[in-house]
Amino acid sequence: MYRVEARYFDGQSSRPQAIVVFTDERFDELRLQCADGDSFFWNVDDLIFEQYEDCLELRNKQFSGALLQIKDEHFSKSFLEAMKFKNKFDVHRRILNIGFPKIVGLAVGMLALIVAAYFWLLPPIAERFVAVVPQSADIALGNMFMNTFLNENRIDSTRTAYLEQFAAQIDFKNTIPLHFTVVESGQINAFALPNGQIVVYTGLLDRLQHSSELAALLAHEAAHVNYRHSMKMLFRNLAGYLLISLLLTDVSGIMAVLADNAHRLHNLSYSRKFEREADEQGLKILMNNHIDPNGMVQLFVLLENISRVTIPQIISTHPLTAERKENMQKIIKKSEYSLFQNDYLDSLFVRMQQAAN
Amino acid sequence: METTNTPNTTQVQNHHFQFLGKGSEYFAILIVNWLLTLVTLGFYHPWARAKQLRYTFGHTALNSERFSFSGTGKEMFRGFIKVILFYIIVFVIFYLLWIKVNIFIGILFFYLALLSIVPLAIHGSFRYRMSRTSYRGIRFGYRGDKKWLIKNYIKWTLLTIITLGIYGSWMNMNIRRYTHKNVRYGDVEFNNDCHGSDWFLINFLGLLLTLLTLGIYSFWWEKNRFDYYIDRMSMQKGEQKIWCKSTVTGLGFLKLRVVNFFIIVFTLGFGTAWAAMRSERYIWSNIKMAGNINLDEIHQTEEEYTNTFGDGAAEFFDIDLT
Known about the structure:
The complex is a heterodimer. Helices cover 54% and strands 15% of the residues of chain A. Chain A is an alpha+beta fold. In chain A, strands 4-3-2-1-7-6-5 form a 7-stranded antiparallel beta sheet, covered by helices on one side. In chain A, strands 8-10-9 form a 3-stranded mixed beta sheet, with helices on both faces. Residues 311-318 of chain A have low confidence and may be disordered. In chain B, strand 4 (133-135) and strand 5 (138-142) form a beta hairpin. In chain B, helix 1 (23-39) crosses helix 10 (272-285). By secondary structure, chain B is an alpha+beta fold. Chain B is 59% helix and 15% strand. Chain B is globular, with a radius of gyration of 22 Å. The model of chain B is unreliable at 1-8 and 317-322 (pLDDT under 50). Chain B has helices at residues 23-39, 45-58, 73-100, 103-131, 146-162, 168-181, 196-212, 218-231, 250-266, 272-285, 309-316, and strands at 13-19, 60-62, 65-69, 133-135, 138-142, 183-185, 188-192, 233-237, 240-246, 287-291. Chain A binds chain B through residues 9-16, 48, 50, 52-53, 57, 59, 64-67, 91-92, 95-96, 100, 103-104, 106-107, 110, 114, 246-247, 249, 251, and chain B through 20, 24, 28-29, 31-38, 41-42, 45, 47-48, 51, 54, 58-59, 66, 68, 70, 134-139, 186, 295-300, 304.
C-alpha cells in the first residue's frame, strides 16, 4: 500500500492543491484524496506519465489539463517498474531504458551496418536494378542531356562527319546505335552518354597521333555504353544518396540529387571497376577489328604526359593511369591477335586531323 | 500611507524562466529517434518529433514549474497525411481546370493554392502547438481567424512583390502581431506591439553594419531582433498586465554561436544535442517577465482542439515559427 502527498492542478485553475494519493502494489488505480476529504479515482489505463529528475508527472486522458506532481523517489521507482511490467512503455521509452552505453553501442552498430551496406551491398543491388530497367530509359536520359549540351557547345561538323565515317569502319559490338560528335573545346576530354552518343572534344582529338589511338578511345567509350556504366553509376549514386538522406533522416533532398546527377551526366565519374571493364572490353574491340591494341597503351601514355604537364610535380605521378596502362600491356602480352593494315581508316584519321582549323 | 491589498491589485512580481534540459539526456532521445526513424524507413518521424518537443517543453520552467507538451506522434502523422491529401486535391483541381477550362485559370488556381498553404500552415501550427501546450494544468490556445489570415497573407505577398521585397518587413510584423494577439493562456491574453517600420530599420541597419564589419555585427543584429521580439510582447488579464524583457547581449550570442560551432564541428555533428541545449538555456535564462497578473489565479478557457493540419504543413515547408 502506498500513500504519498502530491500537488494537484485540476485543469480549471492554475492554483495547486495539496492532495494525497493512495494505491496498492499493482498500481491498477490511484485514489486521489483532496484536502476536504473528497476523493476520486484515476485508472491506470488513462494515465500519461513523464519522469523528470525531481518529480513524476501524471496526467489523465479523461480529465484534460489535470496534472499530478509526485516528488517521492520510492513511489516513482515502483510506479515506473509497475508501468513497465504492465507494458505501458512505448518503443522509444523501452529502448531509452536499456541505458546510455547500450544505446550508443546500438547506434554505432547500426552505423557500421549501414556503412558496410553502402560499400558492399549497394553496388551489386544497383547493377541488378539496372538490368531490369529497359534500355529506352538510357536513351531518353541521354537525349535529354544531349539537347541541352548541344545548345551550350559548338559542334565541329566537318570533323564530326569524318569521325562518323571513321567509327563506321569499326565493329563495336554495340547493342544500341552509336553516334559520334566532335565538340570544339580546349578541354582534354571525351565522354559517352547512355543513349549511345559519344562526344570527343577537339582538345583531346588534336593531341592524338595515330588512328589506333582514336580507335582505342572510341572503343573504350563504346564499352561504357555497351555495359550501361552511366546508368549503373547513376543508380549507385542515387541509392547512396538515398541511404545517406535516410541516415540523416532527411528525405526531401532526393529529388534534388536526381536533378543534379542528370545535369552532370558527362562528368559522372565511373568507379575504378567500370573504367577497368571499359579498358579491357575496348581492347577486345580493337583486337577483334584487327587494329593495333597498342593504340590503347599509347592513349594512356598521352594522358599520362598531359597530366604531368597540367598538374604540379608533386602529384604528377598519376598512379591510376599508369596502372591502367600496365594492365593493358599485360593483357596484350598474353593475347594472340592479328593486325590488318587498314589504309582507309588511316587516311580518314589524317584528313580529319587536317580539317582542324 | 495606507496599503490596500484587495485580490484585484496583486503586487508586481518578477518571473523567471529556466531551461533544465541536459545534453546527454537529449542526445539519448535523439539517438533513439534516429534508430527508430531508420528502422521504419522514415515513418517514425512524427513520433520522433513529438518526443523531441516533449523533452524541450518539459524542461522549460517558469518560476520552477515545468511547461508540458501533450501532442502525440499519431496526431502529427495525421497532420502530415492531410497535407499530402491537400496537395493531391490541388493537383487534381489544377488538372481539371487545365483540361476543362484553360491553362491560365489552372495556373492561377495553383498559385493561389500554394500561396494559401503558408498562412494555413501558420494558423494550423499555432492552433495545434498552443492547444497542446500547458502550464500548471492550464492550456494555451490560439483564436486567430483562418480566412482573415489567408486573405491578408495573399494581399501582403502581392504588396511585397510590388515593392520589391521592402513590404516584407511590414508583412512579417503584421503576421506576428496578429498571431500573438490571438494567443491565450487560460484567461490571459497575449499581445505583441510590433511594427514593420521598426523591423525594417533593425534589419536595414543590421545588414549594413554586418557587411561593414565583415559579419561581426551579425551577433548584435541577432540580439536586436530577439530584443524586439521579446520586449514588445506582453500579457493581459483584465486590468492586470505582465511585460517581457530580453536581457540577451551581442557578446552573449557571439559566445553561444561560436562555441556551438566548435562543439558541432569537433564532434563531427554528434554534439548537436549539447549545442541545442546550450541555445535553449541561453535564450530562456535571458527572458524576464514582470507584472501584476497572479499566476495562481489563471482559469481554463480554451476548448480542446483536435485538428493537426498546420503542424504537418509547417514542417513540410520548413517554416520557422519560433
